[in-house]
UniProtKB/TrEMBL annotation:
InterPro entries: Nitroreductase-like, TM1586_NiRdase. This is Nitroreductase family protein. It comes from Defluviitalea saccharophila. It comes from the Bacteria. SUPFAM superfamilies: FMN-dependent nitroreductase-like (SSF55469).
């Protein structure tokens, strides 16, 4: 399975089995994490065999069996949320290629416990990771015309990019973004309150994967 296939097959999974992640898979994930940390100056960590990321009530209702997770953290700056959203998208899809399931969590995790695991930097969320009890189901999605527009004849790469963006997980599944294309230039806006930065990173990664990064350039305005 490649990353594009993973983008179409990855769904949110909240319940996990007791199957241990093999050492070789942990090594591959750690290497991918290290690459992202070096490139974007972050402090993402993989925590295994630890169930303290969620409180008792959340574990009872939502996060059953979660014992492995990514701590999403980094030096506090204005771009941190977007960078962590972008890198978490890469790591979730990479995990999918390795046969793992994931769940991005931005609000219902145990902040005190997770912050201790992070060590340095500001924590913006966690990603539960492991072998799901199921493979999850596709989330409800808006129509492409509701989240995008293109000036002139819309090229295939733009259509594919929007399709990819709609597959991205967003906070409360609001998909509160809008993508505009003109020639080979693309502008994106996102308005989802405190989650806007993270959502922006998640959506950008998925759009790039769907469209092909070589086909366009991001712009702030036209």
């Amino acid at each position: 399975m490649d990353m594009k296939e993973a983008m179409h097959t990855r769904h949110t999974v909240r319940k996990y089995t007791d199957q241990v992640i093999p050492a070789e898979i942990v090594t591959l994930m750690t290497q991918r994490i290290d690459e992202n940390n070096r490139k974007y100056h972050l402090n993402i960590k993989l925590v295994t065999d630890d169930s303290s990321a969620f409180g008792a009530v959340v574990k009872l209702i939502l996060a059953k069996g979660v014992k492995n997770y990514l701590v999403l953290a980094g030096p506090d700056n204005k771009d941190l949320d977007e960078k962590l959203g972008y890198c978490s998208a890469d790591l979730m899809l990479y995990a999918q290629t390795l046969g793992l399931n994931t769940w991005y969590v931005g609000g219902t995790y145990n902040r005190k416990s997770v912050s201790k695991k992070a060590g340095e930097g500001r924590v913006i969320g966690v990603v539960a990771i492991g072998y799901g009890a199921t493979q999850g189901v596709p989330h409800k999605s808006k129509k492409p015309s509701k989240v995008s527009s293109y000036e002139g004849a819309m090229p295939d790469w733009f259509k594919n990019g929007v399709e990819g963006a709609l597959l991205a997980p967003t906070a409360l599944n609001k998909q509160a973004f809008y993508i505009i294309g003109k020639g080979n230039k693309v502008k994106i806006t996102c308005d989802n309150g405190v989650f806007s930065g993270v959502d922006l990173g998640l959506i950008k990664y998925h759009f790039e994967l769907g469209a092909g990064r070589e086909n366009f350039e991001w712009v702030i305005d036209f």
